[in-house]
Design goal:
Elements: E1 15-22, H1 23-29, H2 33-43, E2 51-58, E3 62-69, E4 78-84, E5 88-91, H3 95-113, E6 120-123, H4 127-138
Parallel strand pairs: 1-4, 2-6
Antiparallel strand pairs: 1-3, 2-3, 4-5
Amino acid sequence: MLSAPSAEPAGSGPIRYLIVCRRKRFDKRGKTDSQLVNEFAQDHSLDLSKIVHLGTTKTDNRVHIVFDYSNPGHDECSVFAFVLGPQAVNIRLSPEQMEFLEWRVDNWKQDQKGGTPFPIRSEVCHLALCLSKAIAYRSRDILP
């Protein structure tokens, strides 16, 4: 059960969802990322036909799953983020995290235009390291 009492109602326009889970918890569940998206959608009364699973990133410690709801162009939109534990808990993202999420989705969209179908899956050494590099690069503090 992935329901959360603070989940936003469906049908309020295009929405991007971020689901964050501890890697150990994800592996212990024994489900694929797509199965978790479907379970989350059912628990939150989301229409599965309006969902596009954009991608999943796994680090040593976390799994990040991103999907769009009622957003066929995958444009920037409202983002609802949840941490999965025994239940899904709604969390707030910082402006830097929001910027990184949009940057990541833009990269996935470019990969998709190049022929890689959604969902795009990747493993990274540590998402926080990638986040700090992306922010530093965007602010030109380091060379690309």
